[in-house]
Structure prediction request, 618 residues.
Amino acid sequence: MLNRPTLDPETRVLYGDSLQPPPGYVFDAAVATTFSLDFETALAAPVSLALFAAENRDDILTHPLALLEGAERIAGRLVVYADAGHLHGQGRPHSRLCSLLERIIVEVAAPRGGAFHPKLWALRYRPIRAGDPILVRLLILSRNLTRDRSWDISLRLDGKLTRRVDAENRPLFDLVSSLPDLAVAEVSEDARELTNSVAQDLRRAEWTLPERFDEVRFAVNGFSNKVWQPGPCARLGIISPFCDGQTLELLRNFSRTQPRLLSRPDELACVDADVLDNFEQVAVLDEMAASEDGEEDASPNAIQGLHAKAFIAEVSWDTVLTVGSGNATRPALISGNNVELFASLKGKRSKVGSVDDIMGEKGFGRLTRAYERSELPPVDPAIRSAEARLDEARRALCRGGLRLRCERVDDQDSEALWRVWLIPVEPIVLAGVASLSIWPITRGDGHACDGLAALREGVAVDLGAMPMVDLTRFLAFRLAAEDGLASALFSTGLIMEGLPPERHAAILRWVIDSRGAFFRYLRLLLSELGDPFGAALAAQEGGGGAGWEAAADDAPLLEDMVRALCRGGERLYAIERLMTRLEAGGEDPAGNPIPPEFRTLWEAFRIALQDQGDSRAR
Prediction:
């Protein structure tokens, strides 16, 4: 890679590939942080962790059995912390599988009142072969866990656990270990223990640095009055999609010569011209690059354009490249109210390159053009004021102690239904809000209820009756401002009382709804840990069940079961759990997808598995 410039736009990394274990290893545990999150991308992440990587998120979303098994395999081993109120919402129903994320997603709030903004993955992998070391991986991103088509930057550090605590890793430990205490609702003890375990691993990690760099240091803003800033340098380059005049003036004073700036045109339009005149070059992303060579994305939540954040400082003979979550804004770099994470890599300028090398035509600059002051008008202050009022309402709804309660509807003439109530602990002030619609994310806005008057009065809102598979802790909210200048659509997760324990099994039976789906899922269960190709093949529609549709002696499946028994039976225990859940997950025995011929075969394996366990006990 020495022949390519730092931050070369031709060097691209797939999100899923960054999560995949190294050869000879399997996923063991992870903690992730993000500002915003969409449910489909979060649902696809466990597949990338535990089964196989794919070219993009949509490839994974076409395999519901893989989504189910991915969530099953990482259950209790992944926690994702996201800023409260910034889970994406949509009008159409989400997949019922998104309810499986209730055990994974924890919403948090920044302790100093700003945004919880870091984007991090801390992962632990265990070896397949005994005696090999445990490995860790750290991803520091500018990208959120969303369907994002923006230009972002990621830093991947691979390392191994040692017995020695490294003081340079202290900021990582401080951030991750504090996460459970930032939660806006109750956090399970399992999530706390997992988070603390990964935090302890980060203290003892020894990282392998990227080529051309000699040193890495970490910094976290948002927990104290001490705020990371780039510091004095000979030359400074700033890549920041969001910025403000006060922070740009501060950064300009750090550089002995005029800095370079790359941002978004709508943000630069709000900065005074005399501030921008102090920069040698002010650039924006070229329109063709902003839409990935002109490709459009119809998704309403898809973000395009510049989203990367970086500060490039020339210090003596070195270049310090700082990447992470922080923009050139007051909450990130001056007040420190946002929680932000930074990683600073230092290397010789002769190897890493200068500001001009990295931001110029040899590097990222080939995708940019000069900013023209007149190309966009500043954002109307009235619109920003309306958006700020809706953001306050969003915070009140997500942090106001709202709860859900579900009760079974006794109606002998229809299928079993459950009625859900949204219960406030006290009246909620929703200033400047004209309307408020609420619905469970599994139902869509066709089932929306008007909740504005009730929540202002502190009265419960009836969200309607629904089948068990639609029960979810995640609600979508749509707000509209009184002046009509702004609207907001988001989701949040609430504590639910009365959730039936068989809800998870009902979702399982909703996915595994036929003989063919049952046998495809068995193939997936029996796929070997650390065999992504086998898992991807098993997840394919129509794969694995054809032999059983015709006869009861599908030799390949039988061989897989025998092999699993000989290797300790871990995958067979997973089949046993599956059988138990499918039997308990519904009230209609005729709808059970387990074929009778497999029940007979399974009984023989169940006895062999029990005998194997008794033998080991002796």
